[in-house]
Amino acid sequence: MAADCRALIAERIRARGPITVAEYMELALHHPECGYYARASCRTGRAGDFFTSVDVGSLFGELLAVQIAEMWRLLDRDEGPGARDQGLVAGGRDFDLVEAGAGNGRLARDILEWLQQSDPACYAAVRLHLVERSPEARRDQLRALGPHAGKLASSSDGLPVRIDGVLYANELLDALPTHLVEMTSEGLREVFVDLDGDRLVERAGPPSSPDLARSLARSGAALEAGWRAEVNLNAEAWVKDAACRLARGFLLLIDYGHRAADLYSAGRAAGTLTAYTRHTAAGPGSDPARTPDWLVDPGSRDITAHVDLTSLARAAEGEGLSAIAALDQTYFLLGLGLAERLAESSGDAPGDIQRRLALKTLMMPGGLGSTHKVLVFGRGVGSPRLRGCSFGVRLT
Question: Which of 61, 135, 185, 390 has minimal Cβ neighbours within 10 Å of its Cβ?
Fold first, then answer.
């Protein structure tokens, strides 16, 4: 399958010339026949190529459910006289719960399981929408949801037209196709994918769009000669589209990322484009004669890049959303009761040990807890003090 994807990419280059890294990633990750994500319903866990917060067990979903339930109740308040009679509040109408990049629905099941057991009123109101590009993953969703399959209102490759509730995405934006640029003594250049004989290689050229330089300028990025950086126009466009569809409620994003000042800095001067296979990460290299790992065997490995949190906030606020929080996943989950659950699992029974290890994995410094950032935006919700922010708003 990987060979088929490589042949398709080579054919595209021969027909049209060098392609952007964004177009290369689109083919390598999302092509319906040979793309990495399109050919399997699940790529994570011990049998996959990388771990996510969902892979440590149901705890991540349970803690997210605590925040979602609070958001649902906030949407049920302060609507004004007669609002409930008009069907304008959460308690009087369905509550859209939308997961973007939902995969086969494992995270949604964990969330619904907790809501059914701990907050049946919220569970009853939920209309679940799963958004996933991979047809194979979508085919697996009803099975993965199990007893909660009846909550599924829609499963498609695009966001609902209108959302009244909560839209969340966990590790979606870092896998969206990104452009790769490099600053030279002559100015900004873009890195393209080209052929040298039959070998895929990098090739520098003029930027494919003036939007690349504009995005960097709006984020305040000042690249020095020799520095590389990713500019994810697709992530910005996705946030803008999501914001436009959110009629009222919350947008919750969890992903690898940094503020622009930290992302576009000497510490990340080689960029962050990384390929994952069998839990081994191959990041930017310093040997120009060596084929970058992200160009090896397209279609057989994941490719990601850290996102510019500054550009995401700018995109959301530009479409009328208000910024509510930006913090490390550790602090977000601590606010939702992670420490209390750790204390509850202090026994020596196998189940307690397993939950304790899962909780530590979610919060350990340098791991999922600090590499993952949480951004929360809202529309028509004021400036609520969310429980997920109660431990302190801190972004490292």
Answer: 185
